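Hi C.,

You asked whether I'd gotten around to modeling the 104-residue construct. I have! Everything is below, sequence then structure, no commentary in between.
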Amino acid sequence: MASKNSILFSGPTRYSLGAELYDHKGRTIISSVGSADFDAAVIEILNGAVQLGSIPVEFSNRPDLISYVWFGTPMLWWQVMIMNNLFDPFESLNSGDPILVTKS
């Protein structure tokens, strides 16, 4: 198992749910996965704090615009991707596709 050390970031980043440094195959990597805040956010999502929406035409392939509408900032685009288990915004988030978003 990889070793890890907790680190902190200031400001809105994809690591705003906490971050961990891991040693993986001789390289140090950083990930939010495994941090206490990340785990709490996943539990919140699984407990129904999300709703199903549909992507309008003008938001196709734009997690930053979806983030701006739902979170008030484009900086949380990565959260849109994580919540919907997406990896490539240019191949996903097409007009009319279902999308999970947090309840407002």
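If it helps when you're writing up: The two ends are 38 Å apart (CA to CA).

Thanks,
B.
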